[in-house]
# Entry
Amino acid sequence: MTLPQTSTNQARVFEVTKNALHNTRVTRLDITQPLAEDEVLLRIDKFALTANNISYGITGDSLGYWRFFPSDTDQHQWGRLPVMGYADVVSSNNQQIKVGERVWGFMPMASHLKILAGNINKAGFSDVSSCREGLAPVYSKFDRVSQNPFYQQQNEDYDILLRGLFTTSWLVDDFMFDNDYFDAQQYVITSASSKTSIALAFTIKQRGERPAIGITSAANREFVESLGCYDKVVSYQEISTLDPSINSILVDMAGGKTTLSSIHHHFANQLKYSCRIGATQHGDIDMSDTVSANHLPGATPTFFFAPTQLKKRSLDWGAGEIMKQLSLSLLDYIEFCRASITIVHTNDIDQLDVVYQKVLAGTADASVGQIICLKTN
# Structure
């Protein structure tokens, strides 16, 4: 069964140059070819764009993010950044997946996505295309909205803006708790205005076992302080004012070499764990340099891979229980964010690059959540 299709010249995808993320293009997608067995065509209704998506591009080669949605032309040069979004099934050649179903998942910045469906169950299905081999299966799953007991239509924009990054932050906090905080007495969180950092600070505050210090730019300090989820907020220029004698956990969302070095040298051996996640300071990042960070004083910086902790807790508690805990916590976080984050919609594909460049440059308003819709008529 098939819904009326968008014409070839209306289906679009947004691509970036892998080694120069500021170079972008919008190119056509050919969605007219008949679907092979088990293929499903999704029409992407909306997706969120945050600094977290920029991090996917910066770590695209090292962590495999470019492999999820390979470009149809010149895959060596061009890539498609993954985003979180909602989509509707508009054509299906799989008897278990019906046209009209609404799904949530990892998608490209595009109007459409063709997948090869597999691992189908009541809750959802996966894209089992060959390009996914060796990648974390959690990123290949599409959740069936009709089967999500925590779904609320009025939460959709906040859900795609926050769920992915909140899951990461929730798992970071759980990982630290699971390891007795590595004998640390406080968190130090860089890029404190980023939505992933805010989610982590909120989760830490909810658990109530360790204080969180937020480090941010001078321009964003007032906004970060207004959130009320950090126990203390300082600028990058004020790192030296922090008490270096306190055993600390660094959660580095900024990723810049200068900031990372400053914090490590300031706390030295009192830095008990150094957790690397984001890359908001991408102008000061060299992904090919795998040596310098390993020679900093204190704990060796270690990238956090959320699926590893998710898998552990799924084994500890059962997949159903961890999803329940995550979903309930997310609903609380969405309510918290309604008071501090305003949603702005972009529906014109010609304006997408404008929004993207602001997010890439770090000049986007931290109090605004960007929701993009490239759906065509």
About this structure: The domain at 162-307 is CATH 3.40.50.720 (Rossmann fold).
